[in-house]
Model the fold of this input.
Amino acid sequence: MADDAAILQALRAGDASALAALFDAYADRLYRLALGLLRNPDEAEDVVQETFLKALTHLDRFEGRSRLSTWLYRVAYNASIDRLRRQGESALPSDDRETEETGAVPLPQVLVEWRTPEEILIDAEARAALDEAIQALSESLRAVFVLRDIEGLSTAETAQVLGISPGAVKVRLHRARLALRERLALLFAGPPGGQGR
Done:
């Protein structure tokens, strides 16, 4: 199947191979999103299954105003949030809207020369530190970071998936990047007096 439109048309026609194509195209992406939010591989797998089940049973509700991937991300995000709610209020993020509206942004405390993402991925130790730092982000920042910087969704798509404004996406993404930079700055700065890693 070439694209979302072809997959969608085949699904609506009852083509069983379309489900396999849909799963192949999006299962890993949805899993990464759910894992990033829930921090539990078993729960993330359950969210992926739940997402595809809901997609199939509610296919008639998809109006095509957004991309199929955006709709699937939204279903997976909602399923993840529902699971966090069942875990208790402490698992849910605080509401950052007041500071988002004022535009107040925390300033970094440690400044170092930043490395490119390619350099970071080469180093396994750095990758582990980056994963740990991403998991340490609040749920609201982590969701935006995963969707924008890992999954590559646009600002508008991310806003649609999360049900927030594009401006809020930009603020949260900026905060997430600053928090990651702050947390990882000492690791990438290297020993005192050195040139870094």
